[in-house]
């Protein structure tokens, strides 16, 4: 008897996961503990997407940047699910602003999804650790106290998260290349800025 291979089902679209999560959110402030309690089995990917978007949103970027470091470290350590220390997980933030931002970002997310498809060949544990390392470095860079320095790392984290959720190895490679360029470019800018300040102080 001939057994035909069962076609692999495509993962749920990232924009759909995001819309479902936003729809569940209460009207008032929420905290990271609430977010973690509403994530599915792909919690790392969706959490990175949420935090990457929050890093770009004014008013909550500082908390989101700090929060981004914790799942990144846990991915590097091979943990199966994210967690936060209590002082961070219970800190509320205004989710209404995030809702408005996701509405504006929705068309861009769907455009990326339309050109993305599952192309996942790497081992998950290796991929998780690599993604965790890159996101950790982007989080450190986004936390540098300069105006708008958080925007590019936040956007790159969002791109990495979409590739991770969509299981798209090609998009992930593109996102990693963008991360390396961002780290080198912003790193050079911060280095030259610091050198200029030191030279000014030394005069």
UniProtKB/TrEMBL annotation:
Decide whether keyword Glycosyltransferase is in the record: no
* Residue stretches spanning the membrane: 44-70, 148-165, 172-202
Family matches, as Pfam families: ExoD
Any coiled-coil regions, as ranges: none
Q: Which domain of life is it from?
A: Bacteria
Q: Which UniProt keywords apply?
A: Membrane, Transmembrane, Transmembrane helix
Look up keyword Acetylation and say if it applies: no
Q: Which PANTHER family match?
A: EXOPOLYSACCHARIDE SYNTHESIS PROTEIN
What is the name attached to this protein's record?
Answer: Exopolysaccharide biosynthesis protein
């Amino acid at each position: 008897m001939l057994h035909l291979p069962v076609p692999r089902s495509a993962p749920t679209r990232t924009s759909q996961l995001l819309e479902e999560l936003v729809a569940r959110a209460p009207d008032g402030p929420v905290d990271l503990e609430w977010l973690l309690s509403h994530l599915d089995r792909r919690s790392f990917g969706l959490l990175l997407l949420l935090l990457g978007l929050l890093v770009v949103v004014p008013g909550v970027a500082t908390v989101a940047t700090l929060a981004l470091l914790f799942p990144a470290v846990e991915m590097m350590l091979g943990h199966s699910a994210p967690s936060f220390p209590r002082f961070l997980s219970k800190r509320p933030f205004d989710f209404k602003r995030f809702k408005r931002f996701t509405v504006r970002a929705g068309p861009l997310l769907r455009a990326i999804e339309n050109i993305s498809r599952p192309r996942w060949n790497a081992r998950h544990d290796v991929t998780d650790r690599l993604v965790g390392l890159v996101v950790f470095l982007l989080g450190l860079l986004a936390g540098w106290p300069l105006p708008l320095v958080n925007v590019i790392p936040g956007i790159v984290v969002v791109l990495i998260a979409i590739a991770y959720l969509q299981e798209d190895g090609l998009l992930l490679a593109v996102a990693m290349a963008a991360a390396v360029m961002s780290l080198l470019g912003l790193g050079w800018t911060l280095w030259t800025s610091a050198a200029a300040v030191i030279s000014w102080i030394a005069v």
